[in-house]
Amino acid sequence: MIAKRFVVIFVSRRNSLRSILAQACLAHLGRDRFSAYSCGHPAHVSDRVHPAAIAALASAGMPVPLSQPHGWDDMIRWSSPHANFVITLDETTLPVQPNWPGQPDAALWSFPDIAALDSAGEIDRAALQMLYALRRRLELLTSLPLHSADPAAIRSDVRDLAHMQ
Fold first, then answer.
1. Does residue 1 lie within any of the structural domains?
2. Which DSSP string do the residues of 25-60 spell out, in sequence order?
3. What is the number of structural domains in the chain?
4. pTM for this structure?
């Protein structure tokens, strides 16, 4: 029997740093059980992955996702797999997000917009710290008994991961 893969979409404003780090990290940690995607606000999507994301992922030995940054409208238009979870990393996008097909469970894991910091060195350090914070949360996500647990308990657990330091 083939086990079901859980689909997770990470959302940030530009889809260039936060959501890219989360997508790459989950793809690395949960490749047997998870399919990870990311997207951003269609009006703010970057034209490239942020160099700090590339550097942080290289430092951790994780590949950069192959797809370029894109908006959530593209994901819906492409008929992407219906997500089990949509994890928003930028709370400013919450009020304008679409109604996701399939009504996935949603969680807010708010992270600061480190791309707005003043210096490249600060951004690089913050990106690496963010990657490791995401990794801790995603290690716990990948360890949850998603196939056998009560869906309401899993939904609560995924939301509670937002409060990890």
1. no
2. HHHHH-TTTEEEEEEE-TTT--SS--HHHHHHHHHH
3. 1
4. 0.94
